[in-house]
Structure formats: structure tokens, C-alpha cells
Amino acid sequence: MWNYTDKVKEHFFNPKNAGVLDGANAVGEVGSITCGDALKLMMNVNPATNVIEDARFQTFGCGSAIASSSALTEMIIGKTVDEALLLTNRDIAEYLGGLPPEKMHCSVMGAEALRAAISAYKGEEWDDDHEEGELVCKCFGIDAAMIERAVTVNGLTTLEEVTHYTKAGGSCQTCHEKIEDVLEAVLAKTGALKPAKAHAPGTVGLDAILPLKPKEAPAAAAPKLTNVQRMQAIMLAIEEIRPQIQKDGGDVELVDIDGKDIYVRLSGACSGCSQSAGTMMGVQMKLVEKLGEFIRVKPASLMPAGA
Amino acid sequence: MTGIYLDNNATTRVDPEVLAEMLPLFTQDFGNPSSMHGFGAAVGGKIEWARKQVQALLGAAHDSEVVFTSGGTESDNTAILSALEAYPKKKSIVTSVVEHPAVLALCDYLEKKRGYTVHRIAVDGKGDLDIDAYKAALSEDVAIVSIMWANNETGTIFPIEELAVLAKAVGAVFHTDAVQAVGKIPMKLADSAVDMLSLSGHKLHAPKGIGALYVKRGLRFRPMLRGGHQERSRRAGTENAPGIVGLGAAAQLALVHMQDENTRVKALRDKLEAAILEAVPNCFVTGNPANRLPNTANVAFEYIEGEAILLLLNEHGIAASSGSACTSGSLEPSHVMRAMGVPYTAAHGATRFSLSRETTEAEIDRVIAVVPGIIERLRSLSPYWAGAGAAPKAFAPTYA
Question: Most buried of the four, A68, A120, A211, B346, by CB within 10 Å?
């Protein structure tokens, strides 16, 4: 028997926004019946404001797949498309109070469906629209891009975790070496080569990845950027993120840079907002992307005394 | 935990009469049967009584053919490894694709690490064994054939006597994993070609952690566990006396209830199945309906997933089981469903209801009342469901 949280049970037994959304103008479909779970996310996006005004889902899958889909719709209604894009599978898992490690792939399915729907809305080619042959895991149809995203967002370090989060490698196992190659490539890029501590028993929440912080990583092994260039890159990236956060009535400012720890202060509507952890994650993803190295964004309140 | 327990192929409730027989063994007759004093002698007598009960249930010729073990998995491992050791020149094993992991995983290991050739005989859509392939796989190089008597997921029964006779004709040892069959199918091993048979206590209302291996008199046998003379040196280790006595009592009760199992319980199973098939569109019974255990119904519901079904059943206090991937933590639907070629549209929704002599008609009526609503509810959430009888909805995921 899985150890599901009350929140998961609530969203499974009484799913929100289930069913077909007529006239949806943004639809994302992921998974397949062969794989054992599939999600069709339908959204109504206001073309003038880009706000997601309504969202519904249809899901074939287990309890946590249905709960993740329900949670996803609740999380995105009222957000703009760009705000929604900042959501990750971790936000979904966190919203549900955590998922069993083996079930994290359900939250990933939600995040992938969201990306697919938004790409469809924007008329973009989704970067998962790969040619045959680029798949890493043929059993579940998982490509390298999806594995990379799951590894980056969730700080995964082992093959087993990748399987829990994406299902890749969970069947015939012939792709295990390929997955390990992708994993090592991402870890090398981000500098996060230290193995994560074991997950908290039963569930995985935000804190499960905290041990990832590569504390002893030698400064010399880091980036090609000089310290000044790096600082400027960080400041620039934060400036680029601010307008989105200001739209919600909040703000973010850079307080300090301590190696791989970037301290920021959230203010305005962000302070005390239940979504602020999600906002932090959004900022972190943006910075990782811009810098090409693994950093952690932390609230200024966590700065070591005297630093 | 109260409720409607229809997962008896997973495990059964210990019969209160069984428990009553066991209790004195913990605090009163606690001696070691090997000891040279009265404490031990009392226990030794009870163990031999239990051995006779198991002998009777199996229809074995001699009580000494019964070796007590820790359960089905140990019995299966012991049987296969014994035959391989007793016939060191033979390098092949014959088994089926639908065996329990206790056999399959061991065979995989023997193939990979010890260089044995393993023939895994396929089944057809009803779960029946491909007899021609079985005959073709038999040769004088086969040390042991291990084929289950009845399948745990579908209840489909294999023609064990026919298979055993064929195996003996080429000089192979014949073992059967009868964990699901013992207590439900009348047996007379005294007249059978079966050499070894595994059984497990907790599938027949005895506790977990006790089982037995039947070893025909005269068969070459090599022990897996070494260390003591217990069980005539065929299974070392101080006897699990309470478990053994519990298994003996359970064997006695199983014989008493065998008729009930094959009439009343079977009728309840058939009623449940027929009612579900009538009330729910797009579902079917897996396995061979004409040749099954009397207590097992496995229904595959199309376009929905088994774990979700089980969670909703559980809300109604109904315990069942599923061949779906999600319930086990593995990511694949059950190997039995895949071996039978059950389409993926239904394999993930395969749901097993396994009854016991404790199941009542009122319970079955309750399940019949609840199941259609659960299936309809999940289908209303499913992107594949397009209505009764309709082809599945076109649903083109971005990756598939």
C-alpha cells in the first residue's frame, strides 16, 4: 500500500477540473496507454492577456497520476502562460505534500503536459518532438531532453531516481547505460557531482534535494567566467526575471553571492506567499540556465551570520 | 481492519481453529524436538501429527515425503537446486513464462550466472501451456521441469499429470509449484508422476513463514540448507514448531472444506464474474474460464488503470489485487498478462478477485453493487474512453 498524503487522496477521490474542456485553445497530451499512464491537459488561454482562464484534464493512470493532474489544473488557473512555465514537477509534488519516490514520474507527467500545452498555444515546436531514434528509453518513449529536465529540476543523481521520476529504464533495462551517460553529462555541466542523501522515508518533498549542495566543490573547478563576469551575469538574469514577478505585485532583489549559493530577497506580494518556494525555484532554474552551472538560490534570511 | 477481503491468492486469514492449535506451542510445549527430555518429546509428536495431515491433503504415500520449509519460495528454490545438484551433467531447465518470481528469478540467475539453458514455455491467450513447445523442449539434458499447478493471477490450471509423465519419459525430475492449488484441487500424489511439489501455509489459512516441499520417496535429493539433521537432514534448522502445527491443522481443515470450495465458493465466483460482465461494458475475464481454480476471478477493464480501481474499491472496504504496473512499484503490467497477449488497453486494468471459504454471498452482492460505479467513474476521467462498445478515442500523445 502506498503511503499517499491526505492531499493526494483528496485530489484522487475528488479530482478538481476533470473532464473535457470545450473550445480549449491549448492542449497538451503526454504518455500512452502502453506506458500505463497518460494525461490530456486542456486549457483556455485569453489571447489578449495570456492568462489561463480555465483548465481541465483527462487522465489514464494510477491514484497519484490523477491527483497530480488535478493539482496541476488548480495551480495554473489564473496564471499567465509565462508564469505557468515556471512551474516544475517539484511544485506539483510539493503542492500535494510529497509523493512516494516511485511515483514522482506522475508529477513529471503533469509538468510535461503543461509544457506541451503551452508550446501548442504559442505555436512552437515542442523540443520533445523528436525524431525516431533519439529516444533514450524506447519502452516508455523518453528522450534525453526530458531526462535532462528531470535531473536538473529535481537534483537527481542516480539511475534509480531517474527511473522513479521519468520511468525511463524501468522496463527492459537495456538503456541503463544511456541514461547514466545523460545523467553524468548533466551532473558534469552543473558541477553537482556529490550524491544526494537518501530520500526521507515514504515521500519526497522539497527538502529531499537539499543535500545536493556541492559544498566542497573547489572554486577553481568552476566556470570559465571571471568572478566579475559571473556576478554581472547573475545580476542580469535577475533583472530579466523581475518583470514577471512584479506583475504579481512582488519583487526580487539580489543580496549576496557566496560561491554556488545565491541569496535573494523576495518582497511585496511574494513575502509570506505560499508560492514563494516555487518562485525561488523559478529564479534558480533561470540562473542555472544562464550560467550553465549548478547554483542554489536561497532566501537572504538563510545567509550565514557574519558572511 | 474489517471489510470484504477478496485477495486470498495473496494471503489468507489464519483460521481461528488453526491459531488455537498453535498457541500451546509458544508457552507450553516450547521444547526443542531434538532434545532428550520430555519438553522436546511433546513437540516432536505434534510435528509428526502435522506431517500426517499434510500427507493426507496431498494424497502422498508416506508422511516422510513431506519436508517442512519456510514457505513457497524456499520450497521452489530447494527443489530446483536439488535436482541440478543431483544431476550435475544435465544442463537444461524447463519452466513456463507465467511462473511465480520464486521460480522465474532463480531460473534467470541460473541462466546468467551458472550457464544453464532455460526453456520458458509460452502460453496462449487463455493462459494454457503450449504443449508442443513443451514436448520439443524436453530432452535427456533436462535436469528439472518446474511448472506451476495453477496460476496465481488467473487461476488457470495446467495439466500437471500429463506434463509430469512426459518429463519422466526423458528422465527429468518434475517439480510443481502448487502454492495456489493445494487445498483447492483434490490431489493424490501417491499415484502421480510428480516428483516434488511446493506448498505455502499462508495461502490456506495457516500463518506466513511456514510451507512444505513434497519429495517423492526414492528421488535423489540434495539439501539447500545445511547445518543439522532436522527433517531427515533435508532441511537444517530448528523446526518452526508452531508454524508446522498450524500448517497441519490448516491441511486438515482444507480437506474438510474442499467440497465447499469447489461448489459454494465457485458459485459465488461465477456469480460475481457474470454480474460484472453484464453490468460493465468493455471488460473480459482473463485465463481459461473452463479450467480454473474455483476461487479466482480476474477481470480486465479496458481504458483504466488498476491501482486507481483498487484505491476506490478500498474506499468501499473491498480488498482486491491488480496486475497493473503501479501497484507493485514496477513499471510494467504483470508478466502473466503480457504472456497471454492481453492488450495494453486492458492489461493495466486487470483486477483479481480471489475468494475463500470465508467469503459470503452478502459480500459478493456488495461488490457487485459497487464495481460498475467505480469503473464508470474512472472511465469518465480517462482520455481513451469513448463510450460502451466504441473504439478507443483517437489520442495522440506527443510521445508514445
Answer: A68
